[in-house]
Amino acid sequence: MMKTSRILGWLLLAGVVFATLAPIGLRPVSDAPVSLERFGAYAVVSFLFALGYPNRRWQIVGGLIALAGAMEAIQNLELTRHGRFGDFAVKAAGCWFGVLVAIVLAFIPASMAKAEGRV
User: How do residues 83-100 score in pLDDT, each as one tens digit?
Assistant: First the structure.
């Protein structure tokens, strides 16, 4: 499970980097609101990394938030893109959400085992 989460996390992160930095015409489009796309992408990436690297969760949050900020700044170099603080804030919130969900899901089996006396 950890290895799969790591591989999927890195693949999805590569897709996020491409979608963020590529010219706007190459950006994938869905019917979802753009903020939901941003939040969801970063939530899933951080969730997968938090599952794949459980001892590095806080570094994952910090690293992904720093990457999101850097990519928002870099977008200003591309004529068809624009980096905005609001977009960064949505991405940062997605990072926190994904890691927190992974922490909660990791805690549930341990607390159930303790309640059943298996610890």
Answer: 899 999 999 999 999 999
